[in-house]
Amino acid sequence: MGQKHEWSKLSTESKVVAAGRPEKKADGELNPPIALNSTFHVGGPIGYARSGNQTWSALEEAIELLEGGKTLIFASGMAAINAILSLLPPAGVIVAAKNGYQGTTTYLKNLHESGKLTVRFVDLTNAEESMAAIDGAQIVHLESPVNPLLDVVDLPKLITYAKAKGCGVSVDNTFATPLNQNPLAMGADIVIHSVTKFLSGHSDILLGSLSTNDLALYNRLEQSRKYGGAIAGPFETWLALRGLRTFAVRMQRSQENAMILAERLSKDSRISRVRYPGLPSDPNHLLAKSFMKGFGAVVSFEPRGSAAQVDLMCDSAKLITNATSLGGVESIWERRRRWDTESHTVPESLIRFSVGIENVDDIWSDIDQAMLLAKIK
Ligand SMILES: *Cc1c(COP(=O)(O)O)cnc(C)c1O
């Protein structure tokens, strides 16, 4: 019993619901188990739990269907990124964003300073500068939209250029998500997710993933996971799969809210600048529209006020949580420069706002009252 899915005919909304289920059979389980085993009886392909787990396989199958490449999950997004870096030779050359995700940027800076890798930090939104740096590099690590200013990188152009030059390409797709862009279909070698964010969506776990179409590369990354040891916990994996079931509807709702709020903020005289690639007035709008299906759920904006006033504003919200991270059902914001590691090119007053799935008018009222309390004028 149980008809097999024709996956290629299904859309993302259906794939997230149907993927990663156990075999259909009489009294078979609808959901995969939380498989708690450190070891297995002899004779099979797994043998020991650093090499595989039934709950991992279910989540990996689901992400594989979304990104279009064989997938490995890791203990965190950073563990996934570290697995890629572990494949580079000593002092290998990597091109990466100057103002990228601060965890990645800080880690790459440390590796560069200790001589383990040679990192060419560039402004990825400057295609000429990026292409010049790609010449002679082993890998380029792309992110788009780039955190936290939400600049859009010309992914099709840079991926095509890098591949023509024999340079490997990894793309961090955490902000855009597979609902909006598929870097493997554009020719990238590896797609990375911090599954912690939109894919799992409930701010209750950390996990990461890598997906690739290159089987030899997959095998090297799998070895890196097995011996690097940064493996996912089965319970976290199960929660991520549960969260993924609603990923498409959550993302659609969050994006709709983000668009409405970006428009309201951009018309408000108390705000000096709003960045959201979905805004027709955004400098990256046309580029984003040329290859993205939607514009994500993160908005950045600068209230007219001091850092202290903006801190007070973030703290004065009731519905919106003042915290780092993004991609959950709840709206979260923070003043990015409260972090020492944040790039000094990021304006002092900039708020990164991860828009949740709450009622959009309730979110707007909360923003409004927070600005009043902080005397933002
Ligand atoms: C959060 C994040 C990461 C790191 O993921 P963790 O799960 O926190 O280790 C990497 N890239 C981006 C874009 C992120 O937002």
Automatic annotation (TrEMBL):
Top-rank taxon: Bacteria
Pfam families from the UniProt entry: Cys_Met_Meta_PP (PF01053)
InterPro entries membership: Cys/Met-Metab_PyrdxlP-dep_enz, PyrdxlP-dep_Trfase, PyrdxlP-dep_Trfase_major, PyrdxlP-dep_Trfase_small
Any single Gene Ontology cellular-component annotation: cytoplasm
Reaction catalysis annotation: L-homocysteine + H2O = 2-oxobutanoate + hydrogen sulfide + NH4(+) + H(+); L-methionine + H2O = methanethiol + 2-oxobutanoate + NH4(+)
Keyword annotations: Pyridoxal phosphate
PTM sites of type N6-(pyridoxal phosphate)lysine: K197
Names of required cofactors: pyridoxal 5'-phosphate
An example Gene Ontology biological process: transsulfuration
PANTHER family assigned: CYSTATHIONINE GAMMA-LYASE (PTHR11808:SF15), TRANS-SULFURATION ENZYME FAMILY MEMBER (PTHR11808)
Protein name according to UniProt: homocysteine desulfhydrase
Top-level taxonomy: Bacteria, Bacillati, Actinomycetota, Actinomycetes, Candidatus Nanopelagicales
